[in-house]
Amino acid sequence: MKVLIIYDSAHGNTEKIASSIGSAISGDIKVAHVLKVDPSELKSVDLLIVGSPTYGGRPTPPVKELIYKLDKNSLDGKSVAAFDTRLPHRWVKIFGFAAQKIAKSLKAKGGNLLASEGFFVMGGNGPLKEGELERAASWAKQSVKSKD
């Protein structure tokens, strides 16, 4: 299985989650920063995973732009998953989370959504909440398992 994990990361937390996800699953795995991805790479993947920090309830502009630029049915027949990093505070729920919006956008491009998840950071700059890297690895394994 060929997997592309695309992420954006302001303080390194989302990058760490993306790396943990990539290390947890087997196959031809590529973990890449959103600004280093050529959209044509998506044609050859079986599973696309996209992650972003949550800013004001949304993914970062580079993640939104990448998804926006995809043709309407460019993800037809492809499995997709989304994740974000977020603060654990209750008031944050007012704005929503990046993973939900990424998942909706990937589905709108024809993707078959396997999973969507958020991982917690303890402050605007981090660090990740203890245990989140392990939780990300477990989430990845479960997400891939649901594809089979």
Protein architecture, described:
By secondary structure, the chain is α/β, with parallel strands linked by helices. It has a single domain (2-147), classed as Flavodoxin domain (Rossmann fold), CATH 3.40.50.360. The chain is 32% helix and 24% strand. The protein has four helices and five strands; from the N terminus they run βαββαβαβα. It has helices at residues 13-24, 61-69, 98-108, 132-147, and strands at 2-7, 28-33, 47-53, 79-86, 112-120. The chain has a five-stranded parallel β-sheet, sandwiched between helices. α3 (98-108) links the parallel β4 and β5. The longest helix has 16 residues, at 132-147. It is globular.
Layout of SSEs?
Layout: E1 2-7, H1 13-24, E2 28-33, E3 47-53, H2 61-69, E4 79-86, H3 98-108, E5 112-120, H4 132-147
Parallel strand pairs: 1-2, 1-3, 3-4, 4-5
Helix pairs in contact: 1-4
